[in-house]
Specification:
The structure is a single chain. The chain is an alpha+beta fold. It has 4 domains: about 10-120; about 150-315, no CATH class; about 320-435, no CATH class; about 435-605, no CATH class. It is about 40% helix and about 15% strand. It is built from 19 helices and 20 strands. The chain has helices spanning about 10-35, 35-40, 45-75, 80-95, 100-115, 160-165, 180-195, 250-260, 275-285, 290-295, 300-315, 360-370, 395-405, 440-445, 460-485, 530-535, 550-555, 560-570, 575-585; strands at about 150, 205, 210-215, 215-225, 230-240, 245, 250, 325, 335, 345-350, 385-390, 410-415, 425-435, 435, 485, 495-500, 505, 515, 520, 545. Strands 1, 2, 3, 4, 5, 6 and 7 form a 7-stranded antiparallel beta sheet that branches. Helix 6 packs across helix 7 (about 180-195) and helix 14 (about 440-445) runs antiparallel to helix 15. The termini are far apart. This is Isocitrate dehydrogenase kinase/phosphatase. Keywords: ATP-binding, Cytoplasm, Glyoxylate bypass, Hydrolase, Kinase, Nucleotide-binding, Protein phosphatase, Serine/threonine-protein kinase, Transferase, Tricarboxylic acid cycle. It catalyses: L-seryl-[isocitrate dehydrogenase] + ATP = O-phospho-L-seryl-[isocitrate dehydrogenase] + ADP + H(+).
């Protein structure tokens, strides 16, 4: 029960100190995000990558700072539960006029759970549900820089209004020809509108923060006419002469979902009111969960909070059981899922059979590398949780036996909270979006006759298209990873998945390395007949040596797969391909990786 009186002289001071800790965190987060504009204007791509990595660490650093202060100044961990109840109520009071209340609640949860042991705090002491609404928050400079701006063109003034819209972002670098680019955008918008009558509410709305990532920035908004809304994003890039161009016009939910994909790095965007951005973006992508939008904006801890709330809600409204995930079992990760929930849960095993030579800390380091790296649309983002409690009656006995066998150190079955319900507590787990494993996707096509050249009919033809699409996308995925300085290590089909948009994404990180740390070699010519006939490797192999021509036997056993692969991606079997990319990266080159099809680029229009 919550107290009827706030009579602790300490509670307000603790709540205020915690709020000071959050405000410091968000000020630093926002300052770093705002600096992305200058880095873009000066083409400081390495600085952009460095800032991207460092900003991810901000949150945990600030939580640690705040926790240490509360222990040092207030002995917070020794305070009674009555005091902690009052601390939360005071904190709620401090949230009333706050511009980031949902983020501040999550910060409170992080600090509180760091100070209080899991079995010691109850849901009363953290924000399981939000206590303060994020609706209709207005910033202090709403006229000068609201969350979004509205423009009211006519068909005749559309191009000039688009020019003004872009100029309002005050990019300190000249465009090659902004009027020309605005004409391209106008034509793309006119194509969407067709011959529709322009209604009284015809307008363009754009978020006032530019979205920075990799070597580009994006104007994000929507075109509104009557009852129809057309989501759009305009990528702005540097051309070869160092001037700016609008590179394309992306339209519709599917294009935006690709841009904001869970397999891409987080954007840098300066936001006073993040909930207003999320609400605006959700109106453009209603199928995208709010947690993934917060993640895409760089607010990953808020994404984790919302994911967990969604997960608890789903558990309450479902009855199916967690199970061992379908597919080939991995040597390093134990994977389980809930069939009705579109995510998988991955637990690091306690031991790994040969030839795996790794450790739990090394594996966690690889996952952190991916979190901090530009994932270029080809590596799935992961949510990382500790001490997660699941209802025991939702776990199949087979799954419990599997965890007890392969990851006993990660499992506890108890009523740790003392609420009378037995829980399965997983000590450490990664959670990823569920995808169709690429080996299963290809096998489905094989089973439908796609690999049989004599098979005829629509089903066989469709299966052949599926094989071609999967293999081409697999090669594209690897080449995008190479451009991002990532060598996947284990390139087997089972370690890649197909998303709902048909994109191939890598999700097995325990063997990844930087391309620049690898040594790509050709297999030496045999010295004699004995070498040539030997079933053993007769030449020396260093720990970071990679022989691309040896990939073939593991990947291309099926003739249908081999034919497509060699036609489109045969260069992946050539050490020179990998070595040339390594040399360019070492020379400081940062590759362009486009989150949209190249056919959409205006450069194709001349």
């Amino acid at each position: 029960m919550f107290p009827t009186r706030l009579d602790s002289s300490l509670a307000y001071d603790v709540a205020k100190a915690m709020m000071d800790g959050f405000n410091r965190h968000y000020q630093l987060f926002r300052t770093e995000s705002a600096r992305a504009k200058h880095r873009f204007e000066t083409a400081d791509w390495h600085g952009q990558q460095r800032a991207q990595r460092e900003r991810i660490e901000f949150y945990d650093l600030r939580v640690r700072e705040c926790s240490n202060r509360l222990e040092r100044e207030f002995k917070a961990g020794e305070q009674s539960m009555e005091v902690w109840q009052q601390i939360k109520l005071h904190y709620i009071g401090l949230l009333v006029d706050h511009h980031q209340p949902e983020l501040a609640e999550t910060f409170f949860n992080s600090v509180t759970t760091k100070i209080l042991h899991r079995s010691y705090f109850q849901n009363d002491f953290i924000f399981v549900r939000p206590a303060v609404s994020t609706e209709y928050i207005e910033n202090d400079e709403s006229e000068k820089r609201p969350s979004y701006r509205s423009y009211y063109p006519t068909r005749e003034t559309m191009a000039s209004v688009l020019v003004q819209m872009v100029q309002d972002f005050d990019l300190r670098l000249a465009f090659e020809n902004l009027e020309r680019d605005a004409g391209f955008v106008q034509a793309a918008m006119a194509e969407r509108l067709g011959d529709a009558k322009l209604r009284a509410n015809f307008q363009i709305q754009v978020l006032t923060g530019l979205f920075f990532r990799n070597k580009g920035c994006y104007v994000v908004g929507k075109l509104i006419n009557g009852f129809y809304e057309y989501a759009f994003a305009l990528p702005v890039l540097h051309n070869d002469d160092g001037r700016l161009v609008i590179d394309a016009a992306l339209f519709g939910e599917d294009d935006l979902l690709m841009l904001f994909s869970f397999a891409r790095a987080y954007f840098m965007v300066d936001m006073e009111i993040p909930s207003a951005y999320v609400q605006f973006l959700r109106s453009m992508m209603p199928r995208k969960p709010r947690n993934e939008i917060y993640n895409a904006l760089g607010l990953a801890k808020q994404g984790k909070t919302l994911f967990y709330r969604d997960f608890l809600h789903h558990q309450r409204h479902s009855t199916d059981k967690f199970r061992i995930a379908p597919g080939i079992k991995g040597m390093v990760m134990l994977v389980f899922d809930l069939p009705s929930f579109p995510y998988v849960f991955k637990v690091i095993k306690d031991f790994y059979p040969p030839p795996k030579d790794t450790s739990r800390e090394q594996i966690k380091g690889k996952y952190l590398l991916v979190k901090q790296h530009d994932r270029v649309g080809r590596m799935a983002d992961t949510l990382e949780y500790s001490e997660v409690g699941f209802p025991r009656d939702r776990f199949s006995d087979e799954l419990i036996a599997e965890i007890q066998k392969f990851a006993p150190s990660q499992l506890e079955i108890s009523d740790r909270d003392g609420d009378g319900r037995i829980e399965v507590i997983i000590k450490h787990v990664y959670i990823e979006r569920r995808m169709i494993p690429l080996n299963i996707y290809l096998q489905e096509a094989f089973d439908a006759g796609g690999a049989n050249p004599e098979a005829t009919g629509p089903a066989a033809e469709k299966a052949r298209e599926q094989i071609e699409r999967g293999v081409i996308e697999y090669g594209n995925a690897i080449k995008d990873l190479v451009a991002a300085n990532i060598f996947p290590g284990d390139m087997l089909w089972k370690n890649f998945g197909i998303t709902r948009h048909g994109k191939v994404v890598f999700y097995d990180y325990d063997e990844i390395e930087y391309i620049t740390d690898c040594n790509f070699r050709k297999v030496p010519a045999p010295r004699n007949e004995e070498d040539e006939m030997s079933g053993e490797v007769w030449y020396t192999v260093g720990p970071k040596d990679v022989f691309p021509e040896t990939f073939g036997p593991f990947l291309l056993g099926n003739p249908a797969v081999r034919g497509v692969f060699m036609k489109h991606h045969g260069d992946l079997l050539d050490a020179a391909f990998w070595q040339s990319h390594k040399e360019r990266i070492l020379a400081g080159h940062v590759h362009d990786v486009f989150p949209y099809e190249r056919e959409k680029r205006f450069v194709n229009k001349g």
